[in-house]
Amino acid sequence: MKAEKVLIVGGSSSMGLATAVQASSKGFRVVVAGRNEEKLRQIANNLGNQASYYQVDAMEEKQVVEMLRELAPIDHIAMTVNAPGSATSISNTSTEEAKLVFERFWMNYRILNLARECMSPNGSISLISGSSSKTPVAQYSFWGTLHGSIEALARNAALDLAPLRVNVVSPGGIGLKPDRQLVEHLGMPEDIGKAIVSLIENPAISNAKLDVDSGERQGTWSG
Ligand SMILES: NC(=O)c1ccc[n+]([C@@H]2O[C@H](COP(=O)([O-])OP(=O)(O)OC[C@H]3O[C@@H](n4cnc5c(N)ncnc54)[C@H](OP(=O)(O)O)[C@@H]3O)[C@@H](O)[C@H]2O)c1
Question: Which of 7, 8, 9, 15 to mutate to test the pocket of ligand 1 (most atoms within 8 A of CB)?
Fold first, then answer.
């Protein structure tokens, strides 16, 4: 039987790369996508196991449509993509800057919007939010807002797209220590990769949020 195909948008760095390594080691056919072709090519070569790459700017609708059409049928998609711009709190982030950072929401939306046409009906989509939706931090209130929006998007898409499964992984600050946490281990990209692959592999999980944040109880992280 042919191995299932996993597309990782944002697969060339950190959490996405860790997801690619995990998925490939479990026998999935991985496609890493991002903007830097040279980086993607090297990663696909190193992964082996039928891995390939696709150069795409996920902010460009036309490019995303083409990618999904060419790669279809896709079994699983993981969205570990980042957006340009910087934001901090709602009171410190201009509307223009906020719109730029919010592109991350729209990149996720675009994939969900197009999913039915390009995915196996029993596949899955995993999004990334962030622990600031659960434990708001005044200085990062815009991030909490964005992450909460991505979680709401996933919950509603899980209903809309079923039986396709839609889930979210919510990381704490990677390698950062929250003020209050339940376990000493600080989440690293590999922990996020493992969480995403566990959601991909489990046919009974949809409309779920998996917190991978060391049991964070209060934000304001330090290094
Ligand atoms: N780091 C944390 O502590 C933390 C905590 C919670 C949530 N998050 C969120 O989790 C996600 C993953 O974080 P990370 O640290 O793994 O991010 P990262 O290291 O910045 O990686 C982002 C990936 O997205 C790709 N990318 C960026 N813009 C793109 C575009 N327009 N089109 C296609 N690909 C694009 C990048 O490759 P190219 O640049 O080559 O395109 C790269 O592969 C991000 O959304 C981040 O905001 C991070």
Answer: 15
